[in-house]
What does this fold into?
Amino acid sequence: MPNRYAYYPGCSLEKNARAYHISTLYVAEKLGVALEEVPDWNCCGATEYFAIAALPAYALVARNLALAQGMDWNGGQRHLVAPCSACFLNLSKTDHYMADSPQLAAQVNEALAAGGLHYDPGAVFVHHLLDVIVDDVGYEKVQEMVTKPLFGLRVAPYYGCLVTRPDYKHIHNEPEHPFCLDDLLAALGATVIDYPVKTACCGGHMTQISEDTALELIRRLLKAAADYRADAIVALCPMCQLNLDGYQAQVNKHFGTDYHIPILYFTQVMGLAFGATPEEIGIGKEFVDARPVLNKIQEKPPEEGKKRRKKRRDKQALPMPELLRTHTGRK
Amino acid sequence: MALDPGIVPEGRRTFMQEVIAATPGGDPHLELCLQCGTCGGSCPSGPDMDHTPRQLFAMIAAGMREDVLKSNTPWFCVSCYYCVVRCPQEIHITDIMYTLKRMAIEEGYYRESSAAEAPDFSETFIDFVEHYGRSFELGLATRYHLKHHPLGMLKMAGMGLNMLIKGRMDLKPTRIEHLDQLQAILQKAKELEGKD
It folds into this structure.
């Protein structure tokens, strides 16, 4: 694991997703992940700046990469981590396209030079917080820190879009059916449902552009979680959390449903298993109160249902393919 | 004189070439579209689009500039990248949607699409970023909705109030320390793109 990461919280974590910020710092400290905030970072432009102007949008993101490159790294490899999926995408996309297109890199650097900055494509390795936890820290280390396993808590692992897609660095290689968050939550003792819409879209900014479109996308995510009797949905992006949590009441009104599914950040769920009090990890800031479901956490693992005796298969039958359940991460 | 069918006369780019040229960051592979329809079939907001991405790409190839730039399709792209990872031709579909948004704004065609307010949302968002260096949700929501959905403000106000009570929204924007540096960078980038 790298000694240190440049930390890019992004605008959401400053306020709307404060709970994500607080719980990230809590978990990082427990796991010995050293985070140092990028000095004077600016907004990544979210999904908006690219719609207005291309080069300024890349330059906006590149200022952050240049600032991260300029931090004191003692000659070591530079790593940057963003907990927000949209920030992660914009940072890694800008780095990737600058490396891919010398013309873009030259123009972005000409713009950066107006502010006395420079960025060398590839100089900073951009991570999402999830891959730092599962690949760099690893499940074993996480498991060692668990003091209050989440026995009996049924969780839906929700990846959303941008962590596994487009995955410029081939970290996940699982654009549609990733398992790393499933495995992480299982390591915390939780019961992880096989969430069929784990990488479906929450609608992003569509709540502002076309509410009908957005509410339908949010409804699908809530319905699947309810159908699989999940106590909570575990998210890793402030946009996903806000849409599922903040618009849940509107979904209920719009469709005549009655969902009450709390949406927690994966770092909050980790914090709970590490023995944090709800306040220490920002629980209470969500619109759909998470505290009632936390009472479902039991002292002991849930008893497994009676094992049905497997019918002996006909020796003549063809073997069935096995579902590959490995996280093929960077080692 | 007969035109050489393989050569586009100088100064006359096809619409497709224009779209490709306006999409920075490596080859977007747009001309490789097979019309397989995987993109539209994967699109979460496809049912609400005027044209699926596949249709839009056929229209680009046919040079239907006006229809393409009036389509609500780019504005309904949620940037989920499902089509991008599934496209057998590795077309940078999301990036092309961003390019089409920029062209639609530049040429004013977006006003005739069913998503005519969408550019203003992006522009309002960016305006705060350019003035403070950070996004500002309260300012964005109030300015955008007052302008476009004054009657819907009441509904939004409820959510906004909840955000304030939960401590999830700031009343004032946050300004970065070296705002002048950021603005100089953005100004230079706009000049280089010929859009200052």
User: Anything to note?
Assistant: Chain A touches chain B through 68 residues (CB under 8 Å). The longest strand of chain A covers residues 78-82. The domain at 5-130 of chain A is CATH 1.20.1050.140 (Glutathione S-transferase Yfyf (Class Pi); Chain A, domain 2). The beta strands of chain A are 5-7, 35-37, 78-82, 124-128, 154-157, 191-192, 232-235, 263-265.
